[in-house]
């Protein structure tokens, strides 16, 4: 078993957690792109584009080039969604982590440390609308790529669940993107259930099928 421990965030962790968060989000670009590329409507659009340019130009090379550029554009559309989210987060709650998470009631931020290295992170906040109520929202879960498979993500989730239970909360809620398959698998194994799905708040979200999945874990009331 890995000799890691979970503790509260310290200011000296600032760069490590921001870098981990950024890498952890952007790494899902490939999976999201492959999902988009597998959509029937995308194949139909690419085929139609190829045939139209072939009909207009009579050039197989030019038509193929246009389709190739269209596929590259799909990659950058998916990359843009994740990059924009990272930029927004780094300039909002991740800008001043101590102030945002450790100096307000109902907020908290933990890191997993192994041999003096920050290898994981997770946060808890009051739930965003429309959830409301007596719940805790799990945020910013991330584990360093080289330290995955050691139970760190599960331990970090459990820390948030314990935090919610001690506060007398009725549930832990969270959201993740469709492409974060490992995260969704973990949440389901831990007893979370999917409550609903919606498209990300980007104009291109429906086109590339970029969906956000919402989960909830109910906490039994102690008698």
Describe this structure in words.
This protein has helices spanning 14-26, 29-37, 40-57, 60-90, 97-102, 152-166, 181-189, 205-208, and strands at residues 4-8, 108-114, 117-125, 135-143, 171-177, 193-199, 211-218. It has a 7-stranded mixed β-sheet, with helices on both faces. Helix 2 packs across helix 4. The chain contains 8 helices and 7 strands, in the order βαααααβββαβαβαβ. By secondary structure, it is α+β, with helices and mostly antiparallel strands. The protein has one domain: 3-Layer(aba) Sandwich (Aminopeptidase), CATH 3.40.630.
Strand content: 15-25%
Give the number of domains: 1
Largest sheet: 7 strands, mixed
The average pLDDT is 94
Shape: elongated
Strands ordered across the widest β-sheet: 1-2-3-4-5-7-6
Q: Return the CATH architecture.
A: 3-Layer(aba) Sandwich
Q: Using only CA atoms, what is the Rg?
A: 21 Å
CATH superfamily: Gcn5-related N-acetyltransferase (GNAT)
Query: Number of helical runs?
Result: 8
- Which blocks of ≥5 consecutive residues have pLDDT under 50? none
Keywords: Membrane, Transferase, Transmembrane, Transmembrane helix
Transmembrane segments: 32-54, 60-77
Protein name: N-acetyltransferase domain-containing protein
Organism: Pyxicephalus adspersus
């Amino acid at each position: 078993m890995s000799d890691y421990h979970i503790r509260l965030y310290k200011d000296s962790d600032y760069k490590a957690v921001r870098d981990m968060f950024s890498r952890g989000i952007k790494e899902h670009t490939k999976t999201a792109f492959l999902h988009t590329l597998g959509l029937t409507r995308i194949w139909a659009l690419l085929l139609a584009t190829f045939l139209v340019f072939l009909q207009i130009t009579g050039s197989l090379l030019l038509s193929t080039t246009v389709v190739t550029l269209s596929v590259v554009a799909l990659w950058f559309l998916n990359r843009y969604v994740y990059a924009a989210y990272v930029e927004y987060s780094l300039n909002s709650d991740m800008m001043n982590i101590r102030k945002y998470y450790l100096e307000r009631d109902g907020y908290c931020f933990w890191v997993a440390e192994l041999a003096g290295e920050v290898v994981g992170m997770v946060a808890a906040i009051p739930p965003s609308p429309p959830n409301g109520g007596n719940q805790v929202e799990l945020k910013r879960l991330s584990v360093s790529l080289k330290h995955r498979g050691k139970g760190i993500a599960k331990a970090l989730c459990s820390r948030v669940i314990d935090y919610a239970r001690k506060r007398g909360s009725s549930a832990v809620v969270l959201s993740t993107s469709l492409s974060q398959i490992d995260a969704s698998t973990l949440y389901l194994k831990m007893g979370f259930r999917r409550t609903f799905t919606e498209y990300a708040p980007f104009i291109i979200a429906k086109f590339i099928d970029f969906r956000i999945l919402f989960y909830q874990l109910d906490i039994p009331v102690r008698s």
